[in-house]
Design a protein that fits this description.
Two copies of one chain form a homodimer.
Chain A: E1 7-13, H1 15-18, H2 26-36, E2 40-47, H3 51-64, E3 67-71, H4 82-90, E4 94-96, H5 98-107, H6 114-118, E5 121-123, E6 127-129, E7 138-141, E8 144-147, H7 151-162, E9 172-178, H8 182-195, E10 200-208, E11 211-220, H9 223-242
Parallel strand pairs in A: 1-2, 1-3, 3-8
Antiparallel strand pairs in A: 4-5, 6-7, 7-8, 9-11, 10-11
Helix pairs in contact in A: 2-7, 3-4, 8-9
Amino acid sequence: MTNKSPTASLLIIGNEILSGRTQDKNLNYIAKGLGEIGIRFMEVRVVPDIHQTIIDTVNELRNTFDYVFTTGGIGPTHDDITTESISKAFGVEPKINDASYAKLEKYYKGELNEGRIKMAILPDGAIPIDNPISAAPGFYIENVYVMAGIPNVMQAMFDEVKGTLKHGSVLISKEIKAYTTESKISNPLSDLQDEYDNVEIGSYPFIEGSKIGVSLVFRSDDESALDECLAKMNVILNEQKAV
Amino acid sequence: MTNKSPTASLLIIGNEILSGRTQDKNLNYIAKGLGEIGIRFMEVRVVPDIHQTIIDTVNELRNTFDYVFTTGGIGPTHDDITTESISKAFGVEPKINDASYAKLEKYYKGELNEGRIKMAILPDGAIPIDNPISAAPGFYIENVYVMAGIPNVMQAMFDEVKGTLKHGSVLISKEIKAYTTESKISNPLSDLQDEYDNVEIGSYPFIEGSKIGVSLVFRSDDESALDECLAKMNVILNEQKAV
């Protein structure tokens, strides 16, 4: 597998995920979206609303991966501390972004208060990401993309920036659903993985009513190697059935 | 809020989460379970099936938090590398656990093969965690609890160990559903948060059909402070309605 594809990580900011109040839905959306454009999704972190934790984590991730996405904490209330924390991580001041201010003014028909103005404050140098749903923008600064936590707003923001990201080689994924057990196939599967180092083979047991089985997922950016590997796996499964 | 409650983190091991193939359901279950026994859930990481990444992350987390839970990667196939990685993180050898071997032998009616025996191999010194569903055990070693990735198996394992963990002070959570916007209440809410440093106030906007609103979540281990704070918030909301 090529190692030249860009890498990405996600930082989910929010006490509500760690308390169990909210089930995160953003990770999966972002994972699929990054896969479509060949960006390798390498790590996710979920952290609470604590300034220093956010600052340290953003700095670690942005120095490790090509892209960092964050979700949550960009609203107007006291527990929305993402913008302030990202500013500190980059050593810049948060300041009113004129374009975002104008959009919020239009959206609220001129009735801006302190809370609404807070949403136009971005780290100095950040570029706003449009929010087609409730006007409060996300933003990006260098390789860090800061998005809302509410899934439909997050999705709109992610879809907007997706086209601007560097693309990598897309991994093709093919799957065999085998009604067998992992322990029966683990040896030949391991040999097959050793033979094809450019195909990533994943084995995921499942239960369907009273039937058990294994989903075998083959991923590669080399489709002919993928198909060859898949064909060999089918031979192995048929041989086992014949025994 | 007391800082004496134990802390915990979760390490989700699995390419299938990062590829978007699988939507994780374990985080939320563990979050709720830890909340019930007063353990503060401080961080989650999701990492791919890469030995060194797992080793480094486990070592970082176990030195930072009282408990580390891991999910995924304990089956018999080549991509199940959790046991091997945890052994390396602790500098011990993986070896057959006699009790787990006996259970697997019974479960498979004596028909053990290499793949099945692999599931009885634990880091030297680890204690098995029973798997009532498919016999392949989880385990714990010092403060690291290693569980399956399949949700119903993970839940059974987590429920089994839950009672043995150190308990902390349970945070009581109460919620006000307000049909207002965050920007209208952000100032008085921030003042209220400043007044009650032992109550954690979270503000989460929601959309219900054409109605928008804010869920205000108050959490504390001091119920009288919590109720006082909640009552003041209701006064603020009523005053705003009256304007």
